[in-house]
Amino acid sequence: MIAPSPWVVRQLGRLMPGGRVLDLACGSGRHTRLLAAAGHPVLAVDRDAAALSGLMEVPGVSVLVADLESGDWPLAGMHLAGVVVTNYLWRPRLMDLCCLLEPSGVLIYETFMAGNEAFGKPSNPDFLLRPGELRELAGAAGLRELAFVEGYVDSPKPAMCQAICALRE
Question: Among 46, 94, 124, 161, which is most exposed with the fewest C-beta within 10 angstroms?
């Protein structure tokens, strides 16, 4: 299994102890497992039922198979202590993600940005953040930025990435 993102590991302590967290587009659950081990009830969401099947027996984890890019928003009305997203971007739902955060809820988001096409996939601009885009999103959603980085990373592979940790006050 792929190791958790160092960004997510560094921001994990900002989540309310024991608060329910969403791991969106979680794949096989590297962050779901990390969050559950830290004592958070986790809702693991992905469109790949086979990937989610390995999480069904993890204590504190519930799974939801959902295609986030079509149909109704399956998370409407939820209120969560945290939202974690890595290596996934679907702009039509970015503001919806921020709206899931309860007071003192934390958004931890990390994905690829413009310039990544020089290193491989994703290379489609629809799936690459613009410079400062997560910072703009947090501001528009009324979140307070706690940490932000963007630019070249060499691990786990060379890429251009952007990441934010932001708080709903």
Answer: 124
Summarize pLDDT for 135-162 with one digit per residue, the tens. Answer: 999 999 999 999 999 999 998 889 999 9
CATH number of 6-168: 3.40.50.150
**Domains of the chain, residue spans:** 6-168
Distances in whole angstroms, Cα of residue 83 to Cα of each of 9, 43, 61: 14, 10, 14
List the beta bridge partners of residue 142: none
Mean pLDDT of 88-115: 97
Whether this prediction's pTM lies above 0.90 is answered by yes
Q: Which residue reads 């980085």 in tokens?
A: 149
